[in-house]
Amino acid sequence: xxxxxxxxxxxxxxxxxxxxxxxxxxxxxxxxxxxxxxxxxxxxxxxxxxxxxxxxxxxxxxxxxxxxxxxxxxxxxxxxxxxxxxxxxxxxxxxxxxxxxxxxxxxxxxxxxxxxxxxxxxxxxxxxxxxxxxxxxxxxxxxxxxxxxxxxxxxxxxxxxxxxxxxxxxxxxxxxxxxxxxxxxxxxxxxxxxxxxxxxxxxxxxxxxxxxxxxxxxxxxxxxxxxxx
Length: 229
Ligand code: SF4
Known about the structure:
Blueprint: E1 2-9, E2 12-19, H1 27-48, E3 68-69, H2 71-82, H3 88-102, H4 107-111, H5 118-130, E4 138-139, E5 142-143, H6 151-154, H7 181-186, E6 194-195, H8 199-205, H9 216-228
Antiparallel strand pairs: 1-2, 3-6, 4-5
Helix pairs in contact: 1-2, 2-8
Bound molecules: iron/sulfur cluster (SF4).
């Protein structure tokens, strides 16, 4: 069903048109709609930026970070990866396996991430970065799944020098301020974040819950309320 929302971003009207899923759906089925709002937030932030954005094509420093994604994104990306044509599918599956193997020494910490306090989360992220694990989707230092990339990747635009991203320490990286669709979407789901490199295993271990079926309009309204707050 065709639908649209009129927003005002930095005082300028913005109309977002989308195909609204019909009937009760899981958040993953609403994700293409939520991504359109994420893209709109990024565009508005770029237009309002008061300092240059350092991110450029071919700089994949941030793609070695611990990337936290949501259940809806894990489910959609798992389907995406497993429906890729060969030999690309096997190549990406091998990269996921290699990334998981390289992070083996941190497995216990990654698996107990839900219990971490803020300093613990920061330490986990910094220690993970030190391992130099490239995202399985990183190709020639660019995102190989640009249209499918998680919202947190869309919304991560850096204004500090790009070189700093290769040696991040707490408080050194400044990002473009914007309303975060990623954060608003996270509140539609109960679970904790999932490390991107774990998404395939996580989806295999967590079959889709029929109880997660919800009215897409009600989910979109909750998302928009949070985005506007
Ligand atoms: S999904 Fe793309 S943008 Fe995000 S970390 Fe991976 S390669 Fe980088």
